[in-house]
Amino acid sequence: MEFLLYSLNYKPELTGIGKYNGDLAQYLVDKKANVTVMTAPPYYPEWKVHEGFSNKFSAVNDSGVQILRSPLYVPKSVSTLKRLLHLSSFALSSGMRLLSNLRLKPHVVFLVQPTLFCAPITLLYCKLTGALSVMHIQDFEVDAMFGLGMGKQGLFQRVARYVESWLLQRFDVVSSISFSMLENARSKGVEEQKLLFFPNWSDTEFITPEVDGSSIRNDWGYFQDDKVILYSGNIGQKQGLEVVLDAAKHFQSDPKVKFLIIGSGAYADTLKMMASNMGLQNLQFKPLQPWEDIPAILSMADVHLVVQKKGAADAVLPSKLTNILSVGGHALVTAELHTELGKISEKYRNIYTLVEPENSKAFINALAQLITLDTRIPNLTARKYAIDNLNKDQVIDRFISDLYLHLEKNSEKLGNIHAK
């Protein structure tokens, strides 16, 4: 199979979409597929082009994956207007790059949302090459924008939602990472037979409860009887991490409760300044850590935080949760009951503790309960869920099989594969 992955994000980005794209591309290569990746220079979540990369057109082969990078505007501070310029700049530069590579003639073009801005050029490219068009939704960026109040209501919102629906309906396949997000796609007019469930995954053989995190715990200055409360990942506005600062302030009188935030992002400097102004001595910030250290870091934490604002959880399913579940972590998750996270918590009792977003009192009360548990004993419900539902090999193999079924339904596309 000739597979073209088209996305803003790709490895060596350590978090979120870039990490999953890197895993998928390498897995397909290992399965003897020819994979081309159309992407940008790595910039996320720091919102700064990574050292060793230039914000220019480039091409390189990495472990059998042909990576074509196109420049984009990376704002130092993120606003609604700057984000739109950021997304549209990538769509413009990568779109020109895409059309200049008609010779690739892929069997499948796998576009990852965000960004929806690349959808028109993707559909045109697939029309010209005969490729199967797949829209994979990691974030419903239009829903996220309006849900978080970043866009004005009224005519602009109606036009944005109409264009989104119109574009989604024209892809051969629309996949997403949760059943709630697939239901959302269905409500936007995507036909049932086009929908494909393709969740994010975890390397459940690498990230396990058996990994010993005591050495990192010691190196970072924590005692064995400390309760370490960990948030790890993107530090952005949609997370609503102010509630973590409120919790740190509440527990400041207890010397055994320590808060740790690992990550970076557009909101990181603001959050650090807020923590400093609050005089929080029990909160430590660290940058993103190497992937090989992640199992030990996750294992050493007593409580894991998955925090989002209201309006985000329906549009965005946090990728960090997969590895927390795989390590058997005790997690405190902010989401409303009607969301996918809420439905999972109801179906799998004790998989994690769920509280209402942006409710500091509920968040602190739930945290107070969690730190009384023996958190050295893994959460077996979480671990079993990860093994049964999030194993990387099983998830990607099922996706490949499902993709071939969709190719069979699109006989012209299937003929395209057999002819090459």
In brief, what are we looking at here?
The protein is an alpha/beta fold. It has helices at about 15-30, 80-100, 120-130, 140-145, 155-170, 180-185, 215-220, 240-250, 270-275, 295-300, 320-325, 340-345, 360-370, 380-390, 390-410, 410-420, and strands at about 1-5, 35-40, 60, 65-70, 110-115, 130-135, 175, 195, 225-235, 255-265, 285, 305, 330-335, 355. An 8-stranded mixed beta sheet has the order 3-4-2-1-5-6-7-8, with helices on both faces. Strands 11-10-9-12-13-14 form a 6-stranded parallel beta sheet, sandwiched between helices.
CATH class membership of the largest domain: Alpha Beta
Sheet with most strands: strand arrangement:
3-4-2-1-5-6-7-8
Oligomeric status of the shown chains? Answer: single chain
Q: Ranges with pLDDT <50 over ≥5 residues?
A: none
The residue-averaged pLDDT reads: 91
Task: Specify the CATH homologous superfamily of the largest domain.
Answer: Glycogen Phosphorylase B
The tally of helices reads 16
Number of separate domains: 2
CA gyration radius, whole angstroms: 21 Å
How far apart are the first and last residues' alpha carbons, in Å? 9 Å
Question: Structural class from helices and strands?
Answer: alpha/beta
